[in-house]
Amino acid sequence: MEKHAVLYLVVPCYNEEEVLPETARQLLSKMESMLARELISQKSKILFVNDGSRDKTWEIIERLHTENPIYTGVKLSRNKGHQNALLAGLMTAKERADIAISLDADLQDDVNVIDKMVEQYYQGFDVVYGVRSARKTDTFFKKFTAQGFYKLMKAMGVDIVYNHADYRLMSRRAMEGLEEFQEVNLFLRGIVPLIGYASTTVSYERHERFAGESKYPLKKMLSFATDGITSFSIKPIRMITVFGFFIFVVSLIMLVYSLVVHSMGHTVWGWTSTIVSIWAIGGLQLLAIGVVGEYIGKIYLETKNRPKYIIEKVLEE
Q1: Are 84 and 14 in contact (CB under 8 A)?
Q2: Rounded mean pLDDT of the chain?
Q3: Residue 60 pLDDT more than 90?
Q4: Complete DSSP assignment for 53-84
Q5: 114: nearest Cα among 42, 204, 217, 184
Q6: Are 76 and 13 in contact (CB under 8 A)?
Q7: What CA–CA distance (Å, rounded) separates 173 from 237?
Q8: Where are the strands (E) in 121-241, listed by range?
């Protein structure tokens, strides 16, 4: 790969007015460092994507753009969620850049590995994943649930990079490959590995959030995990089949047992065993209906083919 590639840093933002000025300052410092080393082109930009923020995020982005044209921005018409905002930024960058690096606005992703990502691109890699080397800043609960999530995704057959969020570099042709995926239910951590071009990883330590509150509380994390599993694996439905078969076998055993007990003259059945059986089978049926319903809901949303995002405004030079 020839050097002096045009780099776009893609930063999705939702109500980030508290942290955005510092994020912009640190990213500008990093870009100026790479420009001084002639590692990237002078046409490189920092692209903020405003995901329907209700605070002054967009006003800050416009002010930054006025003060320095290296900053640019995309404003979505309404809040569409982190994955859609990230996709909007990548598709905007695809038309203008040779490579794009996506990272969060909260400064938890170590900006100092951006250089390493770009150098790996020059070594011939189309995708470079930022992978956490440790989880020292996480609480026990966060660490336990996060590691459990990755292990569960692997067990479900999803090709996902362990300890990787959405901090990654993608070449233009990798972004063009990403554009070919048309599903509405986006889970980019699972989609990007399916593109198939040469990839590698760089390690970094994730920092504490610089300011503001996390945009991924437990409820959203659970929803995100559910989307990831149901978008890439049919194993939950197969598990229902296995459970159903198991219960059918148990019911046959209970039938034989009932006939034997009846033939021996013991015709009074225990109330406890009856109630437990009813609740167990009823709970399993509700669980099965819920899992199947989740997949039907995904099909429903996909068949509507609604736009994943609508861009209201793009800041140009």
Answers
A1: no
A2: 79
A3: yes
A4: -SSSHHHHHHHHHHH-TTEEEEEESS---HHH
A5: 204
A6: no
A7: 35
A8: 127-132, 164-171, 199-204
Residue environment code for 253-265, b if the CB has 16+ CB neighbours within 10 A, otherwise e: eeeeeeeeeeeee
Between strands 199-204 and 45-50, the pairing is: unpaired
d(CA 220, CA 225): 9
Q: In Å, how far from its chain's centre is CA 156? A: 16
Q: How many Cβ atoms from other residues are within 10 Å of residue 181's Cβ?
A: 13
How far is Cα 249 from Cα 269, in angstroms, rounded to an integer? 20
Strand partners, 194: none
Residue 155 CB contacts under 8 Å (≥ 6 apart), including other chains:
235
Q: Which amino acid is at 62?
A: E
Q: Extract the tokens encoding 178.
A: 């990403």
Q: Are 210 and 22 in contact, with CB atoms under 8 Å apart? A: yes
Low-confidence winner among 82-91, 135-144, 202-211 (lowest mean pLDDT)? 135-144
For the chain, the first-to-last Cα distance in angstroms comes to 28
pLDDT digits (tens, 9 = 90+) for 181-231: 888 777 788 788 888 889 898 888 876 654 545 555 556 566 666 666 666
CATH fold of 7-217+308-314, please? Spore Coat Polysaccharide Biosynthesis Protein SpsA; Chain A (3.90.550)
- Name the DSSP letter for residue 5: B
Structure tokens at 17: 């007015």
Cα 268 to Cα 68, 180, 256, 261, 273, distances in angstroms: 84, 64, 16, 9, 12
**Exposure string over 5-35, b if 16+ CB within 10 A, otherwise e:** bbbbbbbbbbbbbbbbeebbeebbebbeebb
Closest to 228 measured CA to CA, from 180, 177, 183, 277: 183
Report if pTM > 0.85: no
| Closest among 294, 159, 302 to 232, alpha carbons compared | 159
